Amino acid sequence: MFSVNSLLTPIESKELIRHTESKGYVPALLNMGNGKEAYKPGIRKSSRCILDAPDIANTIYMRLQDVLFSNSTDASTQIIGLNPRLRFLRYEEGDVFQRHRDGVFVHPDGTSVSKYTLQIYLNDGYEGGRTALSVWNQDMAGNRTRKKVVVEPVVGAAVIFDHTVLHEGGLLERGVKYVMRTDIMVKR
């Protein structure tokens, strides 16, 4: 897990919010596996706007390349780009996304698969709704313990983590929170 500051400018972030609001948001569904989704507000309560935007994905990927390759810990993993399907999430007061792992996306041609989540914070001015990741720590003796890491959102900043990491979007107490989420794709 690592973060990237200033991946998007405040102006770019505001423009993405404006653009997605003009497209419209619908209730976010929960991936149930096997291509099925369901509305489960007790687990996931927020709204989303999905955009297929390869140009935006490529622009972000170009900005990320140096960071991605310098933070790569698995020599066998070949990062090839971002999933162009961008999911914009809007959380309003009372919205939450309980602890979960992100699902894996396999490209239809079978050449790539998602491995990492890229989440970009698009605004500030809200209370609560923090992203909390449950990561493993290992001491010098090899003992492993789970540690909760809370991400402090900054406009235009991103957090990147493996799909296997348990994480949650805490209860939003005040205001509206916008994030953009997509996947970092690796060669299969």
UniProtKB/TrEMBL annotation:
Cofactor: L-ascorbate
SMART domains in the cross-refs: P4Hc (SM00702)
Domain (Prolyl 4-hydroxylase alpha subunit): residue spans on this chain: 1-185
InterPro entries: P4HA-like, Pro_4_hyd_alph, Pro_4_hyd_alph_FE2OG_OXY
Organism: Powellomyces hirtus
UniProt cross-references to PANTHER family, sorted A to Z: FE2OG DIOXYGENASE DOMAIN-CONTAINING PROTEIN (PTHR10869:SF241), PROLYL 4-HYDROXYLASE ALPHA SUBUNIT (PTHR10869)
Keywords: Dioxygenase, Iron, Metal-binding, Oxidoreductase
One GO CC annotation: endoplasmic reticulum
Protein name: Prolyl 4-hydroxylase alpha subunit domain-containing protein
One MF annotation (Gene Ontology) recorded for this entry: iron ion binding
